[in-house]
Amino acid sequence: MHIKTDYNGAGISLHHSATEAPDASEFERHTHRMFELIYVVKGKGRYVVEGAEYPLLPGTVLLLRPYEYHYVCPEKSSAYERYVIHFDAEITFESESTLACFRDDRFGAGVYFPRERLDEAVLHAFESLDAVRRFAEDDSTLLPSGTVMVRSIVTQILLLLGAARPAEPVAPQKELLFGVIGYINRHLDENLTLDELSKRFFVSKYYLCRAFRQHTGTTFLSYLTTKRIAAAQQMIKEGLPVTEIAYRVGFREYSSFYRAYRKQTGSAPAWERRE
């Protein structure tokens, strides 16, 4: 089963999907500029967000902030059913207060809520989204009304989550890796290499390489490129010149930036501005 309803033009999209025998290798490891809310109906496994791990279990909710590198590892033995909401806070909500508490750095990577810490109203709100989806699918002329209803329900969910108590990661980021990831994200414009980072953090580059893959599920270079392209996408939206952006996110040659950008996004940098 795979059902998806998009609310284009309103800065929000919703889909409800289920995978009977999920294969973890088929779930993309990525980052994006949107907020993402995941509610698990069925399934077992784990989420990995910037090196932190959270259990994937029925009734759990995970909120991902923009540009957090994440992926899911569902167990093949259990069907994985979930609601996933992507939203652009600047478009969807009139007030920043709705999301203010989730911008606090004290949460680390991702904001995770186990079932026992959630008010029943949160789960009912997610379930009501399916009714809105059917409401819009049955009559496409009602889509604008559906958009208003979805925005209202998502606002309700966020306010309820803001009053709940999130849980710590089951396997928190190791102190070393947490420091390395933070440094990378603060210095994307610099010439970052494993050699340079290993010297800065007083470990061998081979140890750092293994630790990075173990706790993020990807290589140092892949993570760095993903974060640089994500930052570039945001700068393009803000109207900065593409050639300037390439240098701002750490590429020394525009041709290298162009190839990396096209490989990751499937389009040329200039086309982003036309959307």
Radius of gyration: 20 Å
For the secondary structure, the number of strands is 9
Specify the helix fraction band: 40-55%
* Low-confidence regions: 1-9
Number of helices, counting only DSSP H or I runs of 4 residues or more: 10
Main sheet specs: 6 strands, antiparallel
Biggest sheet strand line-up? 1-2-8-3-6-9
Instruction: Give the structural class.
Output: alpha+beta
Describe the structure using short key phrases.
six-stranded antiparallel β-sheet; disordered N terminus; three-stranded antiparallel β-sheet; alpha+beta
Describe this structure in words.
With 275 residues, the chain is α+β, with helices and mostly antiparallel strands. It contains ten helices and nine strands. It has helices spanning 89-92, 120-138, 143-163, 175-186, 194-200, 205-216, 220-237, 242-248, 254-265, 269-272; strands at residues 2-7, 12-19, 35-42, 45-49, 52-56, 61-64, 70-74, 80-87, 111-113. It has a six-stranded antiparallel sheet. A three-stranded antiparallel sheet has the order 5-4-7, with no helix packed on it. A hairpin with a 2-residue loop joins strand 4 and strand 5. The protein is globular and about 50 Å long. It starts with a strand and ends with a helix.
Short description:
This protein is α+β, with helices and mostly antiparallel strands and 275 residues long.
